[in-house]
Amino acid sequence: MTERAAGSNGWVDCHAHLLAGVDDGPQTEDASVRMLEDSAAGGTRTLFVTSHVDERFPWSAQRRDALSRAFDRLLELGDKVPECPQLRMAYELAPRPETEEFRADPAHWRLPGTDVVLVDGPDDIPMEHDPGILEYVKRVTAAGLRPVVAHPERRAFLFPGDRDFADALKANGALLQVDSGALLGFDGPAVAAEAHRLIDEGLVDLVASDAHEPGEADLRSVYDHLYRHLGPGSEALLNGTALEER
């Protein structure tokens, strides 16, 4: 596998699902290509293609090989996309205690070229990995790496007004990554309100697309939204500054 070179300007999307037919992302190569086109049109220069490792898609040698083949195919498809972002194969790890992936060296899961590990955060239904999130954050920091917890704003699906969750993550060294769709209201008003609270209180380090289908990988709308809300400081949430290795 290789990584695709890109220009020096643009956004860094650290969380997007683009591999065809491997999890809950696009199911066809055509949809994958349309997502690459969306990402390129939106100004993304580096795109981490993060595949799930979770209750539904547990880690195994077979899954590793399937993801590797799918990523190689995505690189081939990207050759035909003008201004295609640099593509990096990565994972979104759901930290289920006592599993092989939880016990593995966290460095195995870090985003290529960074010192961060993307940790799957809360969702709209209780998940098996929920009790392991904070424990895994501590495990990653103990390994000298930085955990990035995805979509902490989704906690509002189940626990409206719960501020302790995000505060505990930050207190234990986690970076917080909010989804673009949450900020734009696609996950409902409660989640949008929580996403904006986290932004307003300075708890958010990154905004990413968490794209799963065409139409979700273009970051222009969320940048415009953030700029109206925060001004020029919003660029740091999208330009990859927080991912630079410490």
Automatic annotation (TrEMBL):
Q: Which domain of life is it from?
A: Bacteria
Annotated SUPFAM superfamilies? PHP domain-like
Residues forming coiled coils: none
Name-wise, this protein is protein-tyrosine-phosphatase
Give the UniProt keywords, A-Z: Hydrolase, Protein phosphatase
Q: Which organism is it from?
A: Mycolicibacterium austroafricanum (Mycobacterium austroafricanum)
Pfam families, A to Z: CpsB_CapC (PF19567)
Which reaction is recorded as catalysed by this protein?
O-phospho-L-tyrosyl-[protein] + H2O = L-tyrosyl-[protein] + phosphate
EC number annotated for this UniProt entry:
3.1.3.48
- Member of which family? Belongs to the metallo-dependent hydrolases superfamily. CpsB/CapC family.
